[in-house]
Write a structure and sequence with these properties.
Blueprint (H helix, E strand, L loop, with lengths): L4 E5 L2 E2 L6 H16 L7 E4 L1 H9 L8 H16 L12 E6 L10 E5 L5 H9 L2 H18 L5 H15 L9 H19 L7 H14 L4 H10 L8 E6 L10 E8 L6 E9 L3 H5 L6 E2 L1 H6 L1 H18 L3 E8 L2 E9 L4 H13 L5 H7 L2 H7 L3 E2 L1 H9 L3 E4 L1 E4 L2 E7 L2 H9 L4 E5 L7 H6 L2 E4 L7 H9 L2 E4 L5 E3 L4 E4 L2 E4 L3 E5 L4 E4 L4 E2 L5 H14 L4 E5 L3 H9 L5 E5 L10 H9 L3 H25 L4 E5 L12 H17 L3 H17 L11 H6 L1 H20 L5 E6 L5 H22 L6 E6 L2 H5 L1 H4 L5 E4 L1 H9 L10 H7 L15 H15 L4 E4 L7 H9 L4 E5 L3 H17 L8
Parallel strand pairs: 15-16, 16-17, 17-18, 25-26, 25-32, 26-27, 27-28, 28-29, 29-30, 30-31, 31-32
Antiparallel strand pairs: 1-2, 1-3, 3-6, 4-5, 4-6, 7-8, 7-10, 8-9, 10-11, 12-24, 13-23, 14-18, 15-22, 19-20, 20-21, 22-23
Bound molecules: phosphoenolpyruvate (PEP) and magnesium ion.
Length: 902
């Protein structure tokens, strides 16, 4: 016979911590604590296996389960010295859910089970407290009525409110026993009326129904939603723990509380707890009363306090991690009701892991695996104070939610265009740029802002990519936020937010909140430094970490957070500065080759200066510079500018004035028309531009090499890697390679500086991955541009994916946003093919990744497994990438791994 019920009580339990999958987190830790001799009320746990049977067999209990429950109950009654349904010594139990991972508040619980018309009288006599007994009974009737019998909670509450109104009192404790007794009668009538049957008076029947209801609550809508967000498989199911009730509301020597063995926000050592005298746990959870600091317990019951502190320390050492505990003191006697590994802020996660190593509780491997890579990123950014944010949301200040595109907490006044953002920030204001979407022309405004929010766009949309690179908080695709540029306002959640109003953005969760929420500063703290130093030690000779950086300032920042080179300089971003864009336009619209060259010569000066700055900042480290990639029309005008130019031209024509301006407008408009493409992302861009307009690439290569030679001449080591974007045929690769070499060698010959450089390509077109062996004949390195590779493999437009992605995720048609988390089975397969074929031609081919996936933990692990040389990501993601790379290696070792890397 399968064992479905595991008992615990009086210092002995049948279960233990290792049985988490079978007994759920709550059940297994109650068993473990019992075995450790910690005071836990007696009880038993019904296994997840019983749930699985129930779920499979159309809500039927497996054979023998009821008998086993009765045996468990008998033992519980003996341990507690009480009897379920015994009017003299009534046992009351709680029936609680518990999955193998904690799903706080998502499933159901029934408290005070065992009460009926007889036992309530017995409880009153036994506790000498009539009010307490009737309060328990009316709570139980309402809870059971709601959770088990499916009657709306409000139906019960309305009656309680009516009583309070009639009595002219505000709080529940002011309602006297006689009224509670009457209320219990009303509740029973309500049950009869709604269900057609009287309230079940038999406590065993109550128990059977309550276990059913907790089983069933696995399928509650909120639980399903929670599982979807946290990737929890539906087949895990829940265990059910039945445990003797203990009461914190039996007077001033009773109480209840919650505690952490370290501060969950900062990670600082020290018991961090709160206590509420004469109260039950649900009062704390429901926020009905505000708990006091734990000093309250020390003052009232010093012995219980000392015991609690001793137990907290013991639990932490036992579990080797920070614990979150729930406790109740019943008439001076302490009971632990739960322990679990405590949820903590990112900063606390790093600090606790580091401290536990230094306290010799865990080893470095364990510490490195325990911190999530995104937590080290978050740990160095300012974040919102959790409580303040929760309060703001509870107060109804949440304006909307979008995709969490770039982590960080930003507070500022809303502006609706980039110029205003620059203007206001120059005047010392903090601003947040709100746009329907962003374009490269918004870059200066984005830079001037604390954060960016857009109503459209996915995670690799322009706004997202640029914001991550700048280290700005960013929320994209917030479709609840309707931006009205004309009126300089946005509508959200029934409110209108106007220019100048203050909002707060959480780029790590996607929340947009009205008014300011307090932030807590983030820096590269000694804890983060120490943890990452360990990470670097373990990933040595493994996966390198480089930065995507476009400016000397970003390069410098990247270096400070540990970048070992630059994996991608997107040179086009350098052309958007206000003094450069007119020259760029001149170049694009030049009527003759000579005019084009003249404009290019002027651009060369700017580019060379930028490269000098970047090479200096990255002295001694490799720098991959990508030649121009986007279609040229992006430099001409946005849709809005285009409309404005047409209007301006018609106005000038009608007035017959300013002929020079008219001609200039005509020129730009004609060029826009000429360059317009139906599918620009699949159009005239990348190496296709380099081949049809070789002068542009010629200028860029000259600028790179002149800068490199100039810096090398000053005695610094430079290692330029020139990268051709979007190659798909061997012909494209050969031609751009030869062209690049010719120009670069020309510069070396001219300057007389001996300098090593290499020429390679991005692999962004699926075809390039498939013919990587041929491409590698003319490419000295590869870098996977997985943004475009994902776009072209799925056939999803990077810029429009937000239109259908949420629906796909909701329906489970995609496990993740493939632009955020690398699709290993599809896109990843192409990456593997590309690596394998590329190295067939050049066994020592250096291979990296520079799409947004280079900073995402599971993708970094994949890159390690398939044998890449490095990952490259924006500087704010570098700490996480360093950790993820170390984790990949540690996990491989632990699995006894000889993977791809051997
Ligand atoms: C890519 O496609 O992955 C890439 C890094 O290039 P971009 O995002 O600039 O197109
Ligand atoms: Mg690309």
């Amino acid at each position: 016979m399968t064992k479905f019920v595991y008992s615990f009580g009086r210092g002995k339990a049948e279960g233990s911590s290792v049985m988490r999958n079978l007994l759920g987190g709550k059940g297994c830790e109650l068993a473990e604590m019992t075995n450790l001799g910690i005071p836990v009320p007696p009880g038993f746990t019904v296994t997840t296996q019983a749930w699985a049977h129930y779920n499979r067999a159309d809500r039927q209990w497996p054979e023998g389960l009821w008998d086993q429950v009765q045996v468990g109950l008998e033992r519980l009654e003996t341990d507690a010295g009480l009897g379920l349904g015994d009017p003299k010594r009534p046992l009351l139990v709680s029936v609680r859910s518990g999955a193998r991972v904690s799903m706080p508040g998502m499933m159901e619980t029934v408290l005070n089970l065992g009460l009926n018309d007889e036992t309530v009288e017995g409880l009153a006599v036994k506790t000498h407290n009539e009010r307490f007994a009737w309060d328990c009974y009316r709570r139980f009737l309402a809870m059971f009525g709601n959770v088990v019998l499916g009657i709306r909670r409000e139906a019960f509450e309305e009656h309680l409110t009516a009583v309070k109104t009639r009595l002219g009192v505000k709080t529940d404790p002011e309602v006297p026993a006689a009224e509670l007794r009457k209320l219990a009668e009303t509740y029973k009538d309500l049950v009869l009326e709604r269900t057609g049957a009287p309230f079940p008076q038999d406590p065993r029947e109550q128990l059977r129904l309550a276990i059913d209801a907790v089983f069933e609550s696995w399928w509650a809508k909120k639980a399903i939603e929670y599982r979807r967000i946290h990737d929890i498989p539906a087949e895990w199911g829940t265990a059910v723990t039945v445990m003797a009730m203990v009461f914190g509301n039996l007077g001033e020597t009773s109480g209840t509380g919650v505690g952490f063995t370290r501060d969950p926000r900062s990670g600082e050592p020290g018991f961090y707890a709160e206590f509420l005298a004469n109260a039950q746990g649900e009062d704390v959870v429901a926020g009905i009363r505000t708990p006091e600091p734990i000093e309250g317990l020390r003052r009232r019951m010093p012995a219980a306090y000392d015991q609690l502190l001793e137990i907290a320390g013991r639990l932490e050492r036992h579990y080797k991690d920070m614990q979150d505990i729930e406790f109740t003191v019943q008439e001076g006697t302490l009971f632990l009701l739960q322990t679990r590994s405590g949820k903590r802020s990112a900063r606390a996660a790093v600090r606790v892991a580091r401290d536990l190593v230094n306290e010799h509780v865990i080893d470095q491997h364990t510490a490195l695996l325990r911190v999530r890579p995104q937590e080290v990123n978050e740990a160095i950014r300012p974040v919102f104070d959790d409580r303040e944010k929760a309060r703001a949301i509870a107060d109804g200040r949440l304006l909307g939610r979008g995709l969490a595109a770039a982590p960080g907490a930003a507070v500022g006044q809303v502006v609706f265009d980039a110029d205003r953002a620059v203007e206001w920030s120059k005047a010392g204001q903090h601003v947040i740029l709100a746009r329907p979407e962003t374009s490269p022309e918004d870059v200066a405004g984005m830079y001037a802002s604390e954060g960016i929010v857009t109503s459209r766009g996915g995670r690799t949309s322009h706004a997202a990519v640029v914001a991550v690179g700048m280290g700005k908080a960013c929320v994209v695709g917030a479709s609840d936020i309707v931006v009205d540029e004309e009126r300089r306002a946005f509508m959200a959640n029934g409110r209108t937010v106007r220019e100048g109003d203050v909002i707060s953005l959480d780029g790590g969760t996607g929340e947009v909140i009205l008014d300011a929420v307090t932030t807590v500063e983030g820096t590269m703290s000694p804890e983060v430094e120490e943890l990452l130093a360990w990470a670097d030690r373990y990933r040595k000779d493994g996966l390198g970490v480089r930065a995507n950086a476009d400016t000397p300032v970003d390069a410098q920042r990247a270096r400070e957070v540990g970048a070992e080179g630059i994996g991608l300089v997107r040179t086009e971003h350098m052309f958007f500065a206000p003094e450069r864009i007119p020259i760029m336009r001149e170049m694009i619209m030049a009527p003759t080759a000579a005019a084009q060259q003249a404009a290019l010569d002027r651009l060369l000066v700017f580019q060379r200066d930028d490269f000098v700055g970047i090479f200096r900042a990255m002295e001694g480290l490799p720098v991959t510079v990508r030649l121009l990639d986007p279609p040229l029309h992006e430099f001409l005008a946005s849709q809005k500018d285009y409309r404005e130019m047409i209007e301006e031209k018609s106005r000038l024509e009608a007035l017959g004035i300013n002929p020079e301006r008219q001609r200039s407008l005509e020129g730009i408009l004609a060029a826009v028309e000429r360059l317009r493409e139906a599918n620009p992302m699949l159009g005239h861009r990348g190496c296709r531009l380099g081949i049809t307009s070789p002068r542009i690439y010629g200028m860029q290569v000259t600028a790179i090499m002149e800068a490199a030679c100039a810096v090398a001449e000053q005695g610094m080591r430079v290692e330029p890697e020139i990268m051709i974007p979007l190659t798909g045929t061997v012909g494209e690769m050969r031609e751009t390679y030869e062209q690049t070499r010719k120009v670069a060698d020309g510069v070396i010959a001219r300057t007389g500086v001996s300098l090593k450089y290499s020429v390679g390509t991005m692999i962004e077109v699926p075809r390039a991955a498939l013919i990587a062996d041929q491409i590698a004949q003319h490419a000295e390195f590869f870098s996977f541009g997985t943004n475009d590779l994902t776009q072209m493999t799925f056939g999803y437009s990077r810029d429009d994916v937000a239109k259908f992605l949420p629906a796909y995720l909701q329906k489970g048609l995609l496990p993740h946003d493939p632009f955020a988390v690398l699709d290993q089975e599809g896109v990843g397969e192409l990456v593997k093919i590309g690596i394998e074929r590329g190295r067939r031609t050049r066994p020592d081919l250096k291979i990296g990744i520079c799409g947004e996936h280079g900073g995402e933990a599971s993708s970094v692990e994949f890159c390690y497994r398939v044998g890449m040389s490095y990952v490259s990501c924006s500087w704010p993601l570098i700490p996480g990438a360093r950790l993820a790379a170390a984790q990949a290696r540690i996990r491989e070792r632990q699995a006894g791994g000889a993977g791809f890397r051997g």
